[in-house]
Design goal:
By secondary structure, the chain is mainly alpha-helical. Pfam families: DUF4383 (PF14325).
């Protein structure tokens, strides 16, 4: 009898599109928050463990340039994402904040004066592309179909 009751509850939960959207947005905030936190930790480790030669630049895993301010931003995005993944509303807020932040960083990379500080905020084309991709994905979760049920409730 307990199994049948559990089975009914599970089947209702899986079929509910509102619950599926809520879960998807919360999973996005959790996964992206964890990813940005991991990037920040790896970035700080690469800054600490790299040699003193800063003319060549410091690279995360030998691919992406890192800097202290960019790592701090990744750390903040990671912590806010993990903290915001607990509730549906905060997950939407995180997705919107991440979309705006990612788009701002991508646009900032095209500003000529912003690329003069590569040690603090390295914005190369590779990093700008990743920020733009992240902004598009976050905008989908923040303003797209997964968040429409929340907007309809307002």
């Amino acid at each position: 009898m307990y199994f049948k009751n559990n089975e009914k509850t599970l089947s209702c939960a899986v079929r509910s599109p509102l619950l599926a959207r809520r879960t998807m947005i919360r999973q996005f905030a959790l996964c992206m928050g964890g990813s940005w936190l991991a990037f920040a930790i790896l970035g700080y480790l690469s800054l600490v463990l790299s040699s003193g030669d800063t003319s060549a630049g410091r690279l995360l895993l030998g691919i992406l340039p890192v800097g202290p301010w960019l790592n701090l931003l990744y750390l903040l995005l990671g912590v806010v994402g993990l903290a915001g993944s607990g509730q549906y509303r905060t997950s939407i807020f995180y997705a919107r904040l991440a979309a705006i932040t990612g788009a701002a960083l991508a646009v900032l990379g095209f500003v000529p004066g912003a690329t003069q500080l590569p040690a603090l905020l390295p914005l190369t084309q590779d990093v700008m592309g990743l920020h733009l991709l992240f902004a598009v994905i976050a905008a989908y979760f923040g303003w797209g179909e997964p968040s429409r049920s929340y907007i309809a409730l307002l």
